[in-house]
Specification:
Belongs to the peptidase M20A family. With 494 residues, the protein is of the alpha+beta class. The chain is built from 16 helices and 20 strands. The protein binds 2-acetamido-2-deoxy-beta-D-glucopyranose (2 copies) and zinc ion. Zinc ion (ZN) binds next to α5.
Length: 494
């Protein structure tokens, strides 16, 4: 028997073997320092998508991501998604989207991992205890901007594929990647790219995996829902210019008073939304859901301490979680045109624009919400019999996303968590909005799972963001185990 034949038989035997989890996990453990170093290189790039001066760094970050995947033998493309228009009218090239493919076996499932490598701004002066772009290990926590959101999770996925390759084990599923660089500023250009590639890159994708969120506690979690968001401007316009309150105060009907008056009609002091139709649209909380919340590990005191308040809107866990994840809420963000500098100014602003948003949950519909809010504010305003003019516009209408936790994709997730962490995951939702999940669902029609590996206290978007070594390394093992579990899903149950 000649050697090539023998080795191919051996290769066949090894790939046909049962899942060799412990070999893979061992490989991950023994390469831990290498993974931390790669994360250090990635964090060192200030890929801040909100700062146009950092755009060259962002382009470099996308190139680096593409190079990494190419070195591993992936079929990689840097997809041009055009330009963005800046407020001054100038055009600026968007960072390219990196797509990659590993494996092309029609008999296997194909998963597509979504991630992003851009970051929120960060400066040492903001109150960081370490240089945000110099990954620093303190007691097993790796501090750095973008460490948890979303560079380490993206790398963990890459390393998961790399480990299979290094040990000459066949990937149990085909793996695709979509990595973007504009997530932190609204994924500019990505929707169009997904739509354009629906029948090409995405055509053979069975499942989409997003790891761009975090656990709720020390217990691993699978995320099955996110809230959407409808963002409104309410503009009240009165006199043709700002007025002196000593000279004109008492004679004019002030736009600010009108505006505050109608804003106060949006939500009661105990959190009840007053806009007719909104609460009625919300899917009722089932007994089963109530029980799920009951089982979730969540420390109310911890939560209060973290945000620095001594009282919350609700004092029991189930109510609190439900209002964080599966009920809508109104938040008032600001008033454009209002005097907000330090000191005193005796002005009557002529025009003020309130900014507020309503988090969306099933079965709310942004188009309906737009009408409900607009009609309601106009009717409340009409009762004031003000001569001022009210204009209401909805500037963002992002739908919520909800998955079925009994779907095989989630069953596979539970099995992978069980294998790696020897416990059942918390099934959680995300109060925030990850619009891309909804786009993937609407455009590709594929099932989606959110499988976070970030810790509950990672400080995303805030000072001293970190990723623990534990979450980074065990998270990599989770992804390895997950690929194997997904491969077990029956082709027919897609
Ligand atoms: C990062 O921080 C370490 C420890 O403070 C320091 O030794 C190193 O020079 C820093 N690296 C860069 C690139 O600033
Ligand atoms: C997959 O399908 C086979 C054959 O139809 C069946 O025996 C098996 O129980 C199914 N497995 C799962 C996990 O549904
Ligand atoms: Zn993110």
């Amino acid at each position: 028997m000649d050697l090539p034949l023998l080795s191919s038989i051996l290769l066949f035997i090894s790939t046909a073997q049962a899942f060799q989890y412990s070999e893979l996990a061992q490989y991950i453990d023994s390469h831990q320092e290498e993974y931390v170093e790669t994360l250090r290189d990635w964090v060192a790039i200030e890929s801040d998508s909100s700062n146009v001066l950092k755009r060259p760094d962002l382009h470099r970050m996308m190139d680096m991501t593409a190079d990494k995947l190419r070195t591993m033998g992936g079929n990689v493309e840097l997809v041009d998604i055009g330009e963005q228009e800046l407020p001054d009218g100038q055009m600026l090239a968007l960072p390219k989207v990196v797509t990659a493919r590993f494996g092309n076996d029609a008999n296997k499932h194909t998963v597509c991992v979504y991630g992003h490598v851009d970051v929120q701004p960060a400066k040492l002066e903001d109150g960081w205890k370490t240089d945000p772009y110099n990954l620093t290990d303190i007691n097993g926590n790796l501090y750095g901007r973008g460490a948890s959101d979303n560079k380490a999770p993206v790398l963990a996925w890459i390393h998961a594929v790399e480990a299979y390759q290094a040990l000459n084990m066949e990937l149990p599923v085909n793996v695709k990647f979509v990595i973007e660089g504009m997530e932190e500023t609204g994924s500019n250009g990505l929707d169009a790219m997904i739509l354009a590639q629906r029948d090409t890159f995405f055509s053979d994708v069975d499942y989409i995996i997003i790891s761009d969120c975090g656990w709720l506690s020390r217990r691993p979690a699978l995320t099955y829902g996110t809230r959407g968001n409808c963002y409104f401007f309410a503009e009240v316009e009165g006199p043709k210019q700002d007025l002196h309150s000593g000279v004109y105060g008492g004679t004019v009907i002030e736009p600010m008073t009108d505006l505050i008056g109608i804003l106060d009609m949006l939500i009661s002091s105990n959190g009840k939304i007053l806009i007719p139709g909104i609460r009625e649209a919300v899917a009722p909380l089932s007994d089963e859901e109530w029980r799920m919340y009951q089982d979730i590990e969540f420390d109310l005191e911890n939560y209060k301490n973290k945000i620095g308040v001594n009282q919350l809107m609700y004092s029991n866990k189930v109510d609190l979680l439900a209002h964080m994840w599966r009920y809508p809420t109104v938040s008032i963000h600001g008033i454009e045109g209002a005097f907000s500098d330090p000191g005193t100014k005796t002005v009557i602003p002529a025009k003020v624009i309130a900014k507020f948003s309503i988090r969306q949950v099933p079965n709310m519909d942004p188009a309906m919400v737009k009408k409900q809010v607009t009609d309601y504010l106009h009717s409340v305003f009409a009762k004031r019999k003000s001569p001022n003019k009210l204009k209401v516009t909805m500037v963002i209408g992002a739908k919520p996303w909800l998955a079925d936790t009994q779907h095989p994709l989630y069953e596979a997730g539970k099995a992978a968590v069980k294998r790696v962490f020897d416990m059942d995951p918390d099934l959680i939702r995300e109060g925030g909005t990850i619009p891309i999940a909804r786009t993937f669902q609407d455009v590709t029609g594929k099932s989606i799972i959110m499988m976070p590996i970030g810790g509950f206290d990672d400080g995303l978007h805030s000072q001293n963001e970190k990723m623990s070594r534990y979450n980074y390394i065990e998270g990599t093992k989770l992804f390895i185990a997950y690929l194997n579990e997904v491969a077990q899903i029956n082709k027919t149950s897609i």
